[in-house]
Amino acid sequence: MTSDYESMLREASLRVTRPRVAVLTAVYDHPHADTDTLIGVVRAAIGEVSHQAIYDVLRALTTAGLVRRIQPANSVARYESRVGDNHHHIVCRSCGVVADVDCTVGDAPCLTPSDDHGFGIEEAEVIYWGLCPSCTTTPVSEDISDPGKESHVRQS
Amino acid sequence: MTSDYESMLREASLRVTRPRVAVLTAVYDHPHADTDTLIGVVRAAIGEVSHQAIYDVLRALTTAGLVRRIQPANSVARYESRVGDNHHHIVCRSCGVVADVDCTVGDAPCLTPSDDHGFGIEEAEVIYWGLCPSCTTTPVSEDISDPGKESHVRQS
DNA sequence: GCATTTTCTTGAATGAATCAAGAATAGCCC
DNA sequence: GGGCTATTCTTGATTCATTCAAGAAAATGC
Fold this sequence. Notes:
The structure is a homodimer. Chain A has helices spanning about 1-10, 20-30, 35-45, 50-65, 135; strands at about 35, 70, 80, 90, 100, 120-130. The first copy, chain A, has about 160 residues and is α+β, with helices and mostly antiparallel strands. Chain A folds into two domains: about 1-70, Orthogonal Bundle (Arc Repressor Mutant, subunit A); about 85-155, Ferric-uptake regulator, C-terminal dimerisarion domain (Dna Ligase, domain 1, 2-Layer Sandwich). Chains A, B: InterPro entries: FUR, Fur_C, WH-like_DNA-bd_sf, WH_DNA-bd_sf.
C-alpha cells in the first residue's frame, strides 16, 4: 500500500516524504475531506505535522495531478483521489456533504458551451446542488453559508 | 431606472433604501463584479457606505432572488443580475474573468445526474474553465490561485 | 407624525490560506 | 557510506474576505 503511494510520488517526480505519503493516503481514504480533516488524519497516522506542510503537500499533489481539489461555493477546499475521469459532484446545500456523479456520456467531456466567447475551454465542471438524504429527513436549521456549524455527515 | 429598481425591491418585500438601490444598480451595471468592486461603484454613486451594509444588502438581494451569487474556486464572491434563466459561466483560469454561457437546451435544467445518490437535486451549475482571449495572447505569469495579483480584465 | 421593525454604522473578530526565514531531509555523486 | 545541494518542513506571523455584535438611523404602517 504505502509502496504504491511512494511509486505514485516518484512517478510524478515528487520526493517521497512521510508527510506526502500520509497526505496521499489520507486523501484516498477520505474522499472529499477538507484540509482540516486531512490534517487530523495525517497527524493520527504519523504524529505532529505542521499545517503549513499539509497545505504545501496538497498543493504539490494537486499540481502534479495526483489529487484533485474541489471547492464548491461557501465551502472550504476539499480534495479527492479520483482524477482524470471527468466525474462531477452533488453537494448538499444544507450540510455540505459531497458525493461523486459519473459523467453520463463516459470519460469524454460531456459538455460543450453554446458560445465560448473566444475562451479556450479546457474543462467543464458540473456541480449539482440539492439536499442529501440525511438532510431531507432531518433538516439542518441553517444553510451551509452560515458558519459555526458542522456537517452531521462528517467525512470519517 | 431608479424607480424600476425600487419596484423590484418592493415586489420582493424589501425596504427601499439608498444603499439597496445603489447596490442593485451596480450589480446590473457590472455583471460578475466582486464585492470589493461593488463597494467602490456604490460609494462613487451615493457616497460613503459601510462595507458591512454592502455585505448585508448583497445577502438580502441574493436571498430574495434579485441577484445571483457565484463563486468559482479560488475566487471571491461575485454577483450578477441574470437570475432564473439557468445560464452558466466560463471562467478564465488565468485572470478569473467570467462570461455568461446560455444553456444549450433552453431554460429548463439541462442536466440530470446519472445517479443522484438519493439527493434531491435542485440545480445543476456548470462552470467551464479555460483561458480568455486576452490571456491566450498575453499570458499572465501566475495562476488565478496565486494571490496578490489583479485581473487585467477588471470589471467596470 | 409616531411607534415598530428593519437596516446601517462602527469597530472588532474569525478563520482559511498564505508568506517568510531558517532547520531538516531526500536524492545524487563520489 | 559520507557529503553536497535543492527541496521540503517547522515555526510564527500575516493577509484578507467575510462575519459578528451593539447601538444609531431610517423606512414602513397606522
